[in-house]
Amino acid sequence: MPADPVADPWPAPRPPGPVDRVVSLPGSKSLTNRALVLAAIADGPSVVRRPLRSRDTLLMAAALRSLGTSIEDTDGGDGSGDWAVTPGAWDRDAAVDCGLAGTVMRFVPPVVGLARGTVGFDGDPHMRQRPVGQMLAALGALGMTIDDGGRGALPFAVHGAGAVPGGTVTIDASASSQFVSALLLAGARYDHGVDVRHVGKPVPSLPHIEMTVQMLRQRGVAVDDHDANRWAVAPGPVKAIDDDIEPDLSNAAPFLALGAATGGRVTVTGWPALTTQPGDELREILTLMGCEVTLTGGDLTVVGPEKLHGVDLDLHDVGELTPAVAALCALADSPSHLRGVAHIRGHETDRITALATELGRLGADVTEREDGLSVRPATLHGGTFRTYADHRMAHAGVILGLAVDDVLVEDIATTSKTFPDFATAWSNAVHGTTR
Ligand SMILES: O=C(O)C1=C[C@@H](OP(=O)(O)O)[C@@H](O)[C@H](O)C1
Ligand SMILES: C=C(OP(=O)(O)O)C(=O)O
After folding, report:
1. 286 lines ligand 2 (CB under 6 A)
2. Residues near ligand 1 (Cβ within 6 A)
3. Which atom belonging to ligand 1 lies closest to the Cα atom of 208?
4. Residue 375: beta bridge partners?
5. Residues 246, 281, 320, 358: which is the catalytic one?
6. How far apart are CA 38 and CA 36, in angstroms?
7. pTM over 0.90
8. What pLDDT sits at residue 435?
């Protein structure tokens, strides 16, 4: 019988002293899933090099394959090679499992309009709670036929007619930047392109929209993002290009925290000099917390201070970093305020409530706010850190385990959403050479 991850939580390893470690990380989820979608609607075959192979990206590959795209492992399937993508005739009905991947639920429906067939979408139980209604309404306004039973949520079906008129559309994307990215990714292949105008509270995670725009431009697509809250994609082909996937800089957070929280040193290799990934912001955040941070020739090194300092941060643009940063704040010697992230209540779980609850259960002094958390210094103790099927909650749990004895992390395997065999990589990093 396999172990029950809830009944048998994972003992988070605690290093005996400051660590000195060099780590290489798997590829970026956000870059891999965009590269796959763009390759599938491109004007010829291409290769996604060093893709992330994790639950979210395997679900994306499966979704695109089910439409009729060929995605082949260039190494015969041992998991170390690239993905060769050949666009195919999208002429069939299909069923897409979104799992808990926002990128699958949001990026795939807009391209299904280009297919001929009816495609059903569903996912994990919590996926039915995650926001998508505004995006489905926008697709309707652009000329697509969606059947969501009036729920504005999973499960829903998209009826592809082989072409999408496109044009101008207004959307409230304050719940997720992925609504905008999704429309832009498909937009060049719509008859009139797409002109997306956001109306509502500020759009979160803007670097992820910049990532989308940059990847479209790299493929010869004209995008006008001159005005705030407006993105216009001109109609035309998406050029097939081979793409190298950067390491996932958001998943670097726990590994950099290993240096930060132990007063040790961790180097992450392959850090890009220029990137649209929000994880790059960790350099600034960790510096503010008292770390020494240097980027030399693609090696990012973090040296932790004797004691981390609290921070007052608006994480609106980089909300996915909140769980790791909140865990570090709970280890700091002064108060912290993390603001601007109301939208992360719609992530894999309500991350604000989950963090307040679980940090609090281990003794942290936390106040939950509508748009974030306040954390004051307190003496933490061991216990079970629940993860709510959220990979980044698991990252928060293991970070606490660096400085607190007997932290048990529930369902460590939930990290497979964006990181293959995280538990082994983490144990190796923690138990590596110590100074
Ligand atoms: O486009 C993307 O790849 C992502 C956008 C962000 O979503 P939200 O805008 O919903 O926060 C981010 O949090 C998510 O992890 C990945
Ligand atoms: C919000 C996240 O994921 P998703 O792509 O499922 O929205 C995340 O990875 O932190």
Report:
1. no
2. 30, 102-103, 176-178, 181, 204-205, 208, 319-320, 343
3. 1
4. 336, 366
5. 320
6. 6
7. yes
8. 47
Alpha-carbon distance values, 14 to 24, 308, 312, 426 (Å): 20, 17, 27, 11
Q: Which residues pair with 346 in a beta bridge?
A: none
CATH fold of the domain at 10-26+247-430? UDP-n-acetylglucosamine1-carboxyvinyl-transferase; Chain (3.65.10)
What percent of the chain has pLDDT above 70?
A: 97
Q: Is the ipTM of this complex over 0.90?
A: yes
Is the pLDDT score of 1 beyond 60?
Answer: no
Per-residue pLDDT of 266-313, as tens digits, reads 999 999 999 999 999 999 999 999 999 999 999 999 999 999 999 999
% of residues, the chain, pLDDT over 90: 96
CA atoms within 13 A on the CB side of 6: 2
Residue nearest to atom 5 of ligand 2 (CA): 102
Fold designation for 29-244: UDP-n-acetylglucosamine1-carboxyvinyl-transferase; Chain (3.65.10)
- Model pLDDT, residue 3: 67
Fold agreement (10-26+247-430, 29-244)? yes
The DSSP bridge pattern shows strands 116-122 and 94-97 to be parallel
Token look-up 């970026």 returns 28
Distance from the alpha carbon of residue 48 to the mean position of ligand 2, in angstroms: 21
pLDDT tens-digit series, residues 199-223: 999 999 999 999 999 999 999 999 9
